[in-house]
Write a structure and sequence with these properties.
Distance between the termini: 32 Å
Number of strands: 7
Number of helices: 3
Largest sheet: 7 strands, antiparallel
Shape: globular
InterPro entries: ASHA1/2-like_C, START-like_dom_sf
CATH topology: Alpha-D-Glucose-1,6-Bisphosphate, Chain A, domain 4
Family: Belongs to the AHA1 family.
Strand content: 35-45%
Low-confidence stretches: none
Helix content: 25-40%
Mean pLDDT: 93
Structural class: alpha+beta
CATH superfamily: START domain
Strand order of the largest sheet: 1-7-6-5-4-3-2
Pfam family, one: AHSA1
Number of domains: 1
CATH architecture: 2-Layer Sandwich
Length: about 160
């Protein structure tokens, strides 16, 4: 984990080819987006630069955490940049529990493997610290592990 420059980040070397990891990200988001036993429900998801996302996470005890935002940049098989600071129609919003600019990056590592990096940038040192204390590394790490599980399944079975 890195906290330099108001940023938290995790890295993984995934045992699946870049094409398969990308497919897992974009076609199977509900299978990896939040740590189990939580589950995700997609309300809106436009995989394009300027596209909207609205995803609700449901907890095992009936908890709900709605997330709404914009995909600022989508470069297939390379990078996804998003924020929860902007909502539908690019309207500024006050996100909860805190605002971020998130980035997922992907690159071919050769031998059927993929470099994956996920980061969250914050507006202040206090927000960075708060996100770290909320469990950024563990939560985003679990999601990365779940993403790799999905990608490996797709690689091994060809399941779509």
């Amino acid at each position: 984990m890195s906290a330099a420059g108001k940023k938290l980040a995790i890295k993984r070397m995934m045992d699946a080819p870049l094409d398969t990891v990308w497919r897992a990200v974009t076609e199977h988001l509900t299978e990896w987006w939040c740590p189990r036993p939580w589950r995700s429900e997609i309300e809106a998801l436009e995989w394009k630069s300027g596209g909207r996302f609205a995803i609700t996470m449901h907890g095992p005890d009936g908890e709900k955490h709605a997330g709404d935002g914009m995909l600022l940049e989508v470069l297939p098989k390379e990078r996804i940049v998003f924020t929860n600071m902007l909502g539908k129609d690019w309207s500024p919003q006050n996100p909860q529990p805190l605002g971020i600019v998130g980035t997922f990056t992907f690159s071919d590592a050769g031998n059927g493997r993929t470099h994956y990096r996920a980061s969250a940038r914050h507006w202040s040192d206090a927000e960075t610290k708060r996100h770290a204390e909320m469990g950024f590394e563990e939560g985003w790490g679990v999601c990365a592990d779940q993403l790799e599980e999905v990608a490996k399944r797709l690689k091994d079975t060809g399941d779509a």
